[in-house]
Amino acid sequence: SFSDGGLFNDPQAAVDQALRCFEAGAAILDIGGESTRPDAAPVSAAEEQDRVLPVIEALAKASDAVLSVDTYRAGTARLAVAAGAHIVNDVHGLQREPDIAEVAASTGAGLCIMHTGRDRQKRADVIEDQFAFLQRSLQIARTAGIADSRIVLDPGFGFAKDTAENLALMARFGELLGFRRPWLIGTSRKRFLGAVSGREAAERDVATAATTAILRLAGAAVFRVHDVAINRDALAVADAMVATKRKTTGQLP
Description:
Elements: H1 11-23, E1 28-32, H2 45-62, E2 66-70, H3 74-83, E3 87-90, H4 100-107, E4 110-114, H5 126-144, E5 151-154, H6 163-171, E6 184-185, H7 191-197, H8 205-217, E7 222-223, H9 228-249
């Protein structure tokens, strides 16, 4: 993660941290070997693989968690699935190395397609830009033969989006349900939460939990977080509200 990158570079330290998250209630463990922070230095495919493959192999043996590999490289994705990963999570939405879609198709792995505004001209309206980018990504997936039921979408909070754009994306999140796909949310500790709360990255877990509850009520399904326990509590409250609303009115919030 951008906020704790470097703390778990040793494979055993990474495994131990992942298992702590699993014991705290995480159902999916997302393993990445290259930082997606805007100013982060790129790493080679070989270095990325040296970082993630031993961790995935160890976690596949040590737990029954669902394992996700965070990569845009087709070669790394193929090796990761062979090592035990169940999901390919591409922060470039299949548009940097489109062959990664073939990996998901041929291996049967689940696929998370993320929206990003990096390295391209964005549309002025945040929702229009989501549809323009993700429709192209979904066409790549369909061409590769990936079933819709194996795809999760991610709106890419913080990826070439300023505070106003991130807040607008939250406020208008319901418009994205038109894709008729499950949504994965990654707001955890991101800069726009610091702009709102005035807190540094490591102190943004409460603000993160607020976004988790808000976006759960708006229809999001999966949440990628740093602090598992506090966000599980936020989800418990949101889900209780949804259940009560459904029971008493027959409607969702």
